Amino acid sequence: QVYAVFSEELKCWCRALVESVRCQADGYQLTCFLLDYAKYCSVASENIRVLAGAFAKIPPRAKKCRLHCTKPLTLHIDYCENTAKIGPAKRWDTAAIQHFRKLLE
């Protein structure tokens, strides 16, 4: 379901999908994907609203996507044997993400 959330970073209301909900001492914190900005943000539960009929049906400007058959790699360093090898990783590292974003720009 699509919601309207207030983004503190953008200082405006945005359409979003809720990814996860965390309980905190002062209330609930939601991790949301902003449909028109292709960004993730954290939003307090008091800053979320249900969208009315027609607004929820507007197609998003951004879509979540993945690179087909592309797996993350990382540099594995073995200090004992003084070697470094590129091998599979569970997640993309920050440097790889920044490099990919620069290539897109």
From TrEMBL:
Keyword Chloroplast: no
Catalytic activity entry: ATP + H2O = ADP + phosphate + H(+)
One Pfam match: TUDOR
EC number: 3.6.4.13
EC class (word): hydrolase
GO terms assigned for molecular function: ATP binding; hydrolase activity; RNA helicase activity
Any one biological process term the GO annotation gives: germ-line stem cell division
Gene3D superfamilies assigned to the protein according to its UniProt record, in alphabetical order: 2.30.30.140
Ranges where the Tudor domain occurs: 3-68
Record PANTHER family: ATP-DEPENDENT RNA HELICASE TDRD12-RELATED (PTHR22655:SF2)
Protein name as annotated: RNA helicase
Organism ancestry: Eukaryota, Metazoa, Chordata, Craniata, Vertebrata
